[in-house]
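Tutorial, part two.
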Amino acid sequence: MTSRRRLARSRIPGTTGTRTLAHGSETSDEPTLAGSAEALPALLLDTTVLIDALRGRAAADRLRALRSVSDPPYVCAINVEELWRGARATEEAAVRRLLRGLRTAGLGDEEGERAGRWRRDFATRGVTLSQADCLIAAAAVAVRARLATGNPSDFPMPELVVEHWPVGA
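Running the prediction step on this input gives:
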């Protein structure tokens, strides 16, 4: 059975980005749309992207480019906790600066229900999803945001548009 999947394109000026199927299992090397006059859809950053930005890798440049063309990206409490848990003592001031420039997507009953249903439904098919990833995905869906991640295969939820930001690239 073939399902229709939405594609997400990175539309940050000056970057190439990749296309990723909503199920997050494949990528394309096609160039992104750059300089589009239309408003960019919201973006929620997964922890892999936050770590890359914190450490000055390619994600940092992509986030700087976003500032001029869109509202600040989102994070959720799960990403914040994961970032702080892995932060080096010397990075704490940089973590605060990074998070200060982002919006926080809330996690409430609806997001908890959505995450729980995903975990249950995928488990019946033999696919184990982490609680954290399901909550992150639910936060993105709640604010109608694409999810930027270095691990697109961790987010197979059909309602979610995933944008692959390769780690360390």
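The domain at 7-31+38-164 is CATH 3.40.50.1010 (Rossmann fold). In part three we will examine how such features are distributed along the chain.
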